[in-house]
Structures are given as C-alpha cells and as structure tokens.
Specification:
single chain, 293 residues, mainly beta, 10-stranded mixed sheet, 7-stranded mixed sheet, cytoplasm, nickel insertion
Length: 293
C-alpha cells in the first residue's frame, strides 16, 4: 500500500462539464450547547437537515440529503466534514444512494467523501446502501483522516445491479476505495475495481462469488480489543445469510460481507455497530430515527 496521499477534488476543481457540480462542506464545533453545526456551505442539490440530538447535546445526528436521488453521467458530488476536537457526529442518509445507467459517452459518475476527525473527536459514517444500476460508470472515494485520539466507525454497502429484478451489473464499471489515515499515515485501504479487465471478480472465488451486494464495516482505532467483542461479531456473521468475516488489522476491526440481500446486510451491520459502539466510544447504540421509517 502506498502512503502517498491521494489528491481529492476540491470545490475549485470540480469539473465544469458535470451535469450537477454539487459540493457540501460541514463544520462542527464544540460549545456550551454541545456539538454544533457551525458552518454548512453547499452548491447544488446536496445539503443536510438541522441536526437532531436524540442522545443529548454532545452527539449530533445529521441526515445527508441529495434530492435527485442518484448520479447520472457527468454528475460529481464532493462531501467534506471538518470537526473541532471533542465533537461527536453521526451522519446517515434517509434512503439508498443510486448511480444510474451511464450515457453512451460513458462520462464518469463521481462521488468523493472526505471526513476530517481531530483529536478527541468521534465520527460515525453510516449511510444507507448505494445501488449501482446496470451499465453504470462510477468512481466512489471515501477518505477518512484521523488525528491523535480520534475514533471512527463507518460502513459502505454496495449493490451491483438490481438483483430483485434479476438484472446484474452488465457492462458497468465501478472503482471504489475506502481508506483511513491516522496522523497522515495510511493505515487501511480497501479498493474494488470492476471493469472489462476484472469483470470475472463478480463471480470468481477470489471476488464476490456471484453475490451482488458487497459490504465493509470499519471501527477504530481501539486502545485494546476485547476478545469477547470479536467473538460476538463472528457469531453474528455466522448467523447471517451470505458470507461475512471479521478481522483485526492493528488497532482496527474490519468486517467484510457478501450477500444477495442489502436489507439483510444492513441488519447485520447495525447489529455489529450496536456492539462496536460501546466498545470503542463507551456509548450505548442509539439508532437514527430515520432508520425506523
């Protein structure tokens, strides 16, 4: 793995050819009122609702909204969150994200997420699944920057094609990456590339093994991982449908999952999150209210 920092698009470098040149930059600070959304700068159809506080003032639950509901050819979304020390933010979405079938010119459909988490701050990144429609052409980037004693729990669930309609990913292209840096040093990097040269991964034993839903859950860094936490997570994986496994990579817990059903995978991840959250940040899980709707 390369430790060279990947360049991410900024607000000034979003391609002018995009159909939607949307960006969202959030700034969270700590005050006597707890964790506060101090700044919210956005362009295009990408914004958040006023934060909710079901756990009290110190933890802000934020719902990320993209009214068009998905990406078409040429769309480019950039999401960035910047926290002050000792803030706690949980970000989720009200529904699945979508990347629609690409136009004949195969212009990329792009989304980049960058989360900057300073010392003593906590970020929980828990979006709903992303559905990649047959013949989409997308590049999805998640970059997590942790500093000092910052902690992170996050997941990514991706559905290739429309399995409920018996439609696979077809000739689609997808380039996904999820990476975590701690104090500038690359600690974890996951990448999945599906194109004309690697399409065999969809069915291959070393790939998705015919499962259209792929998921990744990450949590850490832990000062110490208790063995009963790992054992509990592994028991959840064994009880679930599909193929799932838990590993410890240095101070991080990594759960990878393959399935034919995104709803079942979300339930598995939520169940694991309920165990990981108190283990990592000493807080009982409090599911966002939007998940119940």
């Amino acid at each position: 793995m390369s430790a060279v920092k990947n360049a991410l698009p900024s607000m000034e470098t979003i391609s002018p050819a995009s159909q939607w040149q949307a960006y969202l930059t959030l700034g969270f600070t700590k005050s006597v009122r707890g964790t506060v959304l101090k700044t919210c700068d956005h362009k295009g159809p990408l914004y958040v609702q006023k934060p909710f506080y079901p756990e009290g003032k110190d933890t802000a639950h934020v719902y990320l909204l993209h009214p068009p509901g998905g990406l078409v050819s040429g769309d480019e979304l950039v999401i960035e969150s910047n926290q002050a020390p000792d803030t706690h933010v949980l970000i989720t979405t009200p529904g699945a994200g979508r990347v629609y079938k690409a136009r004949s010119d195969r212009t990329l459909q792009r989304q980049t997420t960058r989360l900057n988490v300073p010392k003593d701050a906590i970020m929980e990144w828990l979006p709903q699944e992303t559905i990649l429609y047959p013949d989409a052409n997308t590049r999805l980037r998640n970059q997590i920057e942790l500093y000092g004693s910052a902690r992170f729990i996050g997941w990514e669930i991706t559905c290739f094609g429309l399995p409920a309609n018996q439609l696979d990913f077809g000739t689609g292209h997808a380039d996904q990456s999820f990476q975590i840096r701690v104090d500038g040093r690359l600690r974890l990097r996951e990448r999945l590339l599906v194109d004309e040269h690697s399409r065999g991964l969809m069915a291959g034993k070393a790939g998705l093994q015919g499962n259209p839903v792929n998921g990744l859950l990450l949590a850490g860094p832990f000062v110490k991982v208790e063995e009963d936490v790992i054992e509990t997570l592994r028991s959840f994986c064994q009880e679930s449908d599909g193929l799932s496994g838990v590993t410890q990579v240095d101070e991080f817990i990594v759960l990878r999952s393959l399935s034919h059903d995104s709803e079942k995978m979300k339930r598995l991840f939520a169940r694991c999150w309920e165990v990981l959250r108190p283990a990592l940040i000493d807080k009982t899980a409090c599911a966002p209210r939007i998940w119940a709707t």
